[in-house]
């Protein structure tokens, strides 16, 4: 229910402002000719799409705890394609419109516009956006390390600033004072949310809590846990199942940050993250000196018991996706079943902790090993029939799933086949685990 309310709030905000802006465009948005009017139409919707994109990544706590950064980021990625086409359409119609207005060739028109400060800034902003969006498509994203991809995304703040200056210098979208005030007030509200949530709050929290590494504990050859302490951690609004974005100062460059889940329920005294060595930052965690200062953003995520409405729950983890599941088990009450998917028992990190937490709670832990599809009959632990055999009352449970994307997709598909209500399914993708 909380998730649906948040979704409707976002939709209502976007639709209401879109209708107002559409009405203002009809009344005050006429360009110098018909083609330039179309160019202004696409430019206006390009700016509105940018506003929505900023809203989705502002990490507003109320939205994040109900929808989760996982879902918000997915929407942000999908809308990025719309942004791509709106940039191309706006640019194309501007060139076509001024070509018709001035009578020069399209290439000469482009050169003439590039000599105008406002137009040149718009071109620069568009170029940055197109490059970053192009590098965010699945084919390119898979070939970039998280740190490189994250650093490239920081260029979008530069493009945003340039684009705002471009809008201010153009100043011709609405030929009415009231409409102009409304438009820039909307931008101020959106940007204020971004600055407060993404910069002011993290800076204040880190100054207040003063996070430091307290211990580094290897869990296996390629998995390590880092214990972090600080001041007044009982005031940090963290819950089991959430994650934080971590920077270890002096150990890596400041732009190298990674999202790691809390692998233990927050206790007001310390925080723990557990990570598998899959990239440069995560691979170097076991070498972090005790006492290292930590800059942490968050906590983030809706993968918590905030949405739970039933007493019984099913916690499903794959690989290092066990980290938020282990934290949830520590906080869980009622009838709990844990399914832990790994290739071999040697890969089942934190398993002793799972058993220690499960025993006093009467929870059941099932470790599912073997490669998917191997053997005869094929090993398919998350097929609908196999899930139902392990958990006969699965449709009467809250289900939490965290693991690699193929596993998560397979589990969700089986849950739907078993008629588990959508509101009872809570998934966190491996990329944020």
UniProtKB/TrEMBL annotation:
SUPFAM superfamilies: Ferredoxin reductase-like, C-terminal NADP-linked domain, Riboflavin synthase domain-like. This is Oxidoreductase. GO terms for cellular component: membrane. Its main location: membrane. It is a multi-pass membrane protein. GO terms for molecular function: 2 iron, 2 sulfur cluster binding; flavin adenine dinucleotide binding; metal ion binding; oxidoreductase activity. The chain crosses the membrane at residues 7-28, 34-57, 78-101, 113-137, 149-169, 181-201. InterPro entries: FAD-bd_8, FAD-bd_FR_type, Fe3_Rdtase_TM_dom, FNR_nucleotide-bd, MRET, OxRdtase_FAD/NAD-bd, Riboflavin_synthase-like_b-brl. It comes from the Bacteria. Its cofactor is FAD. It comes from Phytohabitans rumicis. The keyword Flavoprotein applies. The keyword Iron applies. It is found in: Membrane. Gene3D superfamilies: Nucleotide-binding domain of ferredoxin-NADP reductase (FNR) module (3.40.50.80), Translation factors (2.40.30.10). It holds the Pfam family FAD_binding_8. Keywords: 2Fe-2S, FAD, Flavoprotein, Iron, Iron-sulfur, Membrane, Metal-binding, Oxidoreductase, Transmembrane, Transmembrane helix. Residues 206-306 form the FAD-binding FR-type domain.
